[in-house]
Amino acid sequence: MMLFQCKYIDNFPIANLKRWICSLFLAAAAVAGSAQQLSSVFLEYIDKYKHIAIRHCQEYGIPASITLAQGLLESGAGRSALAKGSNNHFGIKCHDWEGERTYVGAATAYNCYRKYESAEEGYEDHARFLKRSRYQRLYDIPVTDYKAWARGLKACGYAENPTYAEKLIRLIETYELHQYDTGQPKMAKAEHKHESAEQKYEKELDQKEALKKAFMAHDIHRKWHKYYIVAKRGDTYESIALEFNKKTKEILDYNDITDHSARPREGERVWVERKHERHPEVEFYVAKKGETLHAISQEFGMRMKNLYRINHMKAGEELLPGQKIFFR
Fold first, then answer.
1. d(C-alpha 304, C-alpha 72), whole Å
2. How many C-beta atoms lie closer than 10 Å to residue 178's C-beta?
3. Assessment of whether the complete model's pTM goes beyond 0.85
4. How far apart are CA 126 and CA 61, in angstroms?
5. Which of 188, 149, 184, 162 is nearest to 70 (CA)?
6. What's the number of CA atoms in the CB half-sphere (13 Å) around residue 18?
7. pLDDT digits (tens, 9 = 90+) for 224-282
8. Which candidate, 127, 158, 155, 1, places its Cα nearest to that of 52?
9. At 173, phi and psi to the nearest 5?
């Protein structure tokens, strides 16, 4: 398993991914483990927006702890591009929306997100969004039962991530956000004490590992000098693109996918950077019965169009068992 450290990825080939990971670094203490170390970035975010969450708890019946935890998780404590550029702290898309819009990647309905004039407006729209009929059964749950609310949101289809509820619960318990559900806010403060250089370094490692667990849905692997992830159940090429701050069409292109409605299969390798035009290590591969050129392309990180050209093949041409596929 890779542990991302900003000082170690200066030459990381995926620039957007590097910037995204480093920009979220200070938010990493959300799940800092048994030490329960609190992130000042998260605490500042909570302090800034808790009054809105408490008011919405009173007005709409949505637990303030749930509102704050969703805001923290969805926006990276207000550090995401969507939060900073569009005041959208909850990743709400454009469905049934007549206001301003912004796009992440290609300008399609799938990449369209609501844009607000202020964070307060975004929070208000989030509260109204949760009053839709789809979420009505949540209001039978006591406002103080944040665990049932978190699991209920996942069950109602708010997020595709299978660990979404657990992440909300972890944030709520780490930062004691449930104290705001009763309308009696009491802000927890991070401890400030002198730390040795070694202690600071260990804390930094813990924070970076926590960041990966909190915000990266996939472990990142490296093969043939290129980076890829293994698709999980429920993944789409769009969701993978959003996770890695890429355009959907880029992820499709990296993986030689021409059908925009296609979805990756669970366990399938998905490259998150452009594959090789000529392989740096392997000269050729002998095809097995039933293998496709696309499968070989994905296995060895080679561009399909280059495989066609190098092997003097036509698009869609089937492989024969024992056929040599050259990579350079």
1. 40
2. 20
3. no
4. 13
5. 149
6. 13
7. 888 899 999 888 998 888 877 788 999 999 999 999 889 999 999 999 999 999 998 89
8. 127
9. -75, -35
